[in-house]
Structure formats: structure tokens, C-alpha cells
Amino acid sequence: MLFGGIICLYFYGFKILDPTFIDWIHGDGDAIFLGWHFFRSEPWTFPIGAIKSFLYPHGTSVVLTDSIPLVAIPLKLIASILPPVFQYHGYWLFLCYLLQGLFAALLLRNLTSSPVLILAGTIFFLLSPRPLTNASYGQMSLVSHWIILASL
């Protein structure tokens, strides 16, 4: 699990963990951040996640903006105490790398008892989200491979 955090911080740096630092978000990440920003300032509606002010006059949903609703909806509860510029995407990316390493090691431990093979395989699994974030820079919602590894 520790290797996941190390690899994430090696590629993206510590600045992504500053919730007020948004300069690292580019490309598709801009739309993801804007989806969150509009959602947090929107009044609560039903269905939960609706954003009427984004893509006006039709609106959209936080789900369709790739703003990671699993995190966006609970954070909306405390949006009033968050700084005006706030991003959680760096923490999501960091968490995904941590969990990717954890579940990769647990999966590989079922296949072999060799620490060298477990380490090598875990590093392989930790590098697999990297191409997705580079393909369309900023796709934080596409690095959740740990969910697949956890199910295996």
C-alpha cells in the first residue's frame, strides 16, 4: 500500500494534496473540477446530484461530469465551510494509488508466497492507472482500478 502513495507522489508531486491548489488540473480535469464547483454551489435537489446551473438551460448531473459522486455528494454537506476554491481530486488520485497497491498485493499474495514476485506484480499494477491519466490528462475518475482488484 505504501508503494502506491510513493508512486503517486513521484508522478504528481505533493502539491496535488493541497486542496486549494488547482493549477495541476488540466485537460478533461477542468470539466471535472467545474462539475464539482457548480455542484457544490447548487441548492440540494432531487434527484441528488442534479446541477441545473451547469450546461444551462438543460442542466446535468454530477455523475455525468466525472466529478466522482462518491466524494462530491458527501463533501457538498460541508461545502459552506470549505474554501471557495477547493479540489479533492488530488486526494482521490492518491487514495486510488494506495488502494491499488493494497489490493494488488493482497491478490498476488493468494497466487504466490514470493515477496519478490508480490512486489514486482504490485509495482506493475501500480503503474497501470498512469497511462489513463496521461491519455487525456486529468481523468481522475478513470484510475479506480482498485475496485476491480478488490473484487478479484
Q: What would you note in describing this structure?
A:
The chain is mainly α. 53% of the residues lie in helices and 3% in strands. It is built from seven helices and two strands, in the order ααββααααα. Helix 1 crosses helix 4, helix 2 (28-41) runs parallel beside helix 3 and helix 4 runs antiparallel to helix 5.
Q: Stretches where pLDDT falls below 50 for ≥5 residues?
A: none
User: What's the overall geometry?
Assistant: elongated
- Oligomeric state of this protein: single chain
Tell me the radius of gyration. 17 Å
Give me the side-by-side strand order of the main sheet.
1-2
User: What integer is the average pLDDT?
Assistant: 86
Binned strand content: under 5%
User: Termini, distance in Å?
Assistant: 17 Å
SSE order in H/E notation? HHEEHHHHH
List the total number of helices: 7
Number of strands: 2
Q: Structural class of the secondary elements?
A: mainly alpha
User: Helix amount, in percent?
Assistant: 40-55%
The biggest beta sheet, please? Answer: 2 strands, antiparallel
